[in-house]
Amino acid sequence: MPGKKMLQENELFKTAWVEFVRYGKMDREILRPMIADSWIRSRRYKVDPDSSDVTCEISGDIFLERYRNLEPVMDLAKPFMETLYKTVGDSGMVVRLTDKDGYVIECFGDELVFESHQALHLYKGTNVKEEVIGTNAIGIALAKGIPLQVLGAEHFRIDYHNWTTSAAPIKDDSGQVIAVLSMSGDYEQVHPHTLGMVMASALAIEHELKLEISNQDLRRKNDHFNAIMESISEGIICIDERGVIRDINLFARNYLRVRESEALGSDIRDLIRGDQAKKLMKLVKSGSPLKEEEFNFSHMGGRKKSVIVNATPVSEPNDPYKELVVTFRESKEIHNLVNKIVGAKAIYTFEDILGDSEEIKEAIRLSKLVADTEATILLTGESGTGKELFAQSIHNDSNRRSDSFVFINCGAIPRDLVASELFGYVEGAFTGARLGGQPGKFELADGGTLFLDEIGDMPLDTQANLLRVLETKEVVRVGGHDVIPVDVRVIAATHKDLSKEVQRGNFRQDLFFRLNVMPIHTPALRERRSDIPTLIDFFYNQFKKGKGKAGVDIAQSFYATMSLYDWPGNVRELQNVMQLASNLVEEGGVLTAQDLPDYLKTNVRLESEQGQQSVSMKTLAELEREAIQGAIAYNKGNLVKAAKSLGIGRTTLYRKIEKYGLTV
Question: What DSSP designation does 211 have?
Fold first, then answer.
């Protein structure tokens, strides 16, 4: 109930209201400044102080839109509004929540009060701004952003002179009014402390709103963090000091083949065993980091795979609750990166293999035929015939072309180190072993191709291990026990006759059969002499560019002598001879047979009987025609024997007989 002083003040307000409304006189000694200013604004808004016919309300879709806009605030405000309403009991009070534009969005009160006071804009959808109903507590709170109580005759419209409202603004983080909470009732029912109750509720709503905004921000950040965690292409596992998994991202779950519900709460020691698990647990307790160390993770299926681990503590040294974030990547990815850096990549293709002879064409045909299969290939041929060139070309023509091409020369590694080079080793496997161990060539080539050159020089004990790897596609490092699955296509090469090596006991027969799935012979240069001029021109142009020489010609004597030589070192030897000759000839000169090394000229046997011209006086075509004609005559027309004595294929001989118009 209002006190005596409040009743007296209201009578004074009524007198001041009459003076202002009827005669335009403002008594500022009686009125509070905010009320006096509001009366002036109300008159400027042309609000009729005597009219009860004031309608400004919304309904339907517009109200629903405003309702949704204010819903975040309203969800927090409703519990406080209900408490306020219950506090005043059956006193006929109305609790309202108004949006920033003055529309009543939510209200609590007796239905009889709403029905009997329709002109007072108490119900939902009505507008209570100063512009609409003149001076009132909600309108001033919206206009000035302050809490206040407007008593009886302080209202501009006479309809409200028996009504009192206490209102307090609700503001956002930037201080902008987003809503107004108010409590209204009959003048005689209002308690002096009503405004304090409304202000306390409004401040509590603001506090809750800030907390909600803060929580939303935290949720957004958490969602953002989770999105990063889930999308990153690296495994992440968070464990506590007991080894319990507290968090695990999508990559790790997929890699370990485990559902999130199964992983969370499980023990990290189910995934990492032995000394490595103990090492992680020590890191959790000590708060020490770990950088780029190889671990073995167990799939839920039981198989182990090699990963590169980093571990970072996420608690302060004195924090009793300690955690460790373990990140890992597949060792294969690191190996591929290393292979790219060190150049473990095939650069040659079949286009780089020079020659038009039937022999080289046949080798290329067979290579292309099996390139895109998983068949193990055995390249045979003398040293210098280009076996590695064929191996790289096969790899680049296969479906493994985007992965690594790893090379190892089995004959160039000390016998006691061949196994560790091929299969890798664990830490402490032998004296001088690297800390943390090292992957072998099979692991480095995982997904790609491993080229085993000079396979015939591999030690017998290593041959047994190689056979097991080829059959099981699994590697066990030297000194270790963990089985590491590998997906490698093997291309082997040798200059030896492995079948004879098997008979001598130098090579395992079962390994020979396993490697000899697809044998491909790389022909010696003397077996394809018709390609020698092409190779001469190619290497000469290559070395000429390197030296900046121009205008040098090649004499027929040079071609002829080079074509008659047997080339025990094959293409590699020819390349070296061309480099020497190209360096000796002066710019503007001519390469002749005299520019060739003495050993080569000595070994070329030229027929000089019967007054034949020297090789320098005949063209290469003439020499070739005479050689073919002589071979046919010597072998009494047997073309098979003639081709063999010339070191060319029978098909090539037929083609050259037709070319030179020879009769058989």
Answer: H
Cβ-contact 387, 572 below 8 angstroms: no
Q: At what angle do helices 620-634 and 556-564 cross, to 10 degrees?
A: 30
Give residue 330's pLDDT: 75
**Those residues with Cβ within 8 angstroms of residue 37's Cβ, 6 or more apart along the chain or in another chain:** none
What is the average per-residue pLDDT within 93-109? Answer: 92
Q: What is the residue whose two structure tokens read 């299926």? A: 301
H/E element, 268: none
pLDDT tens profile 291-334: 877 787 776 555 567 788 888 888 766 667 788 899 888 766 55
Domain with CATH 1.10.8.60 in the chain: 528-660
Q: Is 103 helix (H, G, I), strand (E, B) or coil?
A: strand
d(CA 445, CA 344): 9
- Calpha distance 130→143 (Å, rounded): 8
Q: Residue 207 class from Cβ within 10 Å (0-12 exposed, 13-18 middle, 19+ buried)? A: exposed
Strands (E), 202-347: 235-240, 245-248, 290-298, 304-313, 323-330
Length in residues, the chain? 664
Domain 4-213 belongs in CATH node 3.30.450.40: yes
Is the pLDDT higher at 510 or at 617?
Answer: 510
The boundaries of every CATH 3.30.450.40 domain in the chain are 4-213
| Banded model confidence at residue 612, pLDDT cuts 50, 70, 90 | very low
Spatial CA neighbour of 392 closest among 453, 324, 315, 469: 453
Q: Which residues pair with 425 in a beta bridge?
A: 438, 478
- Six-digit token string for 426: 């664990």
pLDDT tops 80 at residue 427 = no
Contact predicate 253/261, CB 8 Å = no
CA pair distance 378, 372, nearest whole angstrom: 15
Q: Single out the residue of 354, 376, 312, 336 nearest to residue 512, CA to CA.
A: 376
| 553-554/590-591 β-pairing | parallel
What are the tokens at 325? 């974030």
Other residues' Cβ atoms within 10 Å of the Cβ of residue 349 = 15
CB atoms within 10 A of CB 33: 8
What average pLDDT does the segment 79-95 reach? 85
In sequence order, what are the beta bridge partners of 240? 323
Beta-sheet strands, E only, within 376-441: 377-380, 405-409
Judge whether residue 624 has pLDDT over 90. no
* Spatial contact of 309 and 239, defined as CB atoms under 8 Å apart: no
What is the reported pTM? 0.55
Residues 113 and 92: beta-carbon distance below 8 Å:
yes
Give pLDDT, residue 319: 67
Task: Determine the Cα–Cα distance for residues 335 and 517; give it in Å rounded to an integer.
Answer: 28
Sorted by sequence, the CB contacts under 8 Å of residue 42 that are 6+ apart come out as: 49, 130, 134, 135, 156
Q: Which residue has the tokens 């002749």?
A: 592
- Identity at 18, one-letter amino acid code: V
For residue 646, give the 3-state DSSP assignment. helix
Q: Beta strands of 102-171 (E only): which ranges?
A: 104-108, 148-150, 163-171
Would the pLDDT of 538 be above 80?
A: yes
Beta bridge partners of 177: 171
The single-letter code of the amino acid at 16 is A
Max intra-chain CA distance, the chain = 154
Chain mean position to CA 276: 27
State the pLDDT at residue 334: 56
Class of the CATH domain delimited by 528-660: mainly alpha
Non-local CB neighbours of 216 within 8 Å, separated by 6+ positions: none
To the question of domain 232-329 being in CATH 2.40.50.90, the answer is: no
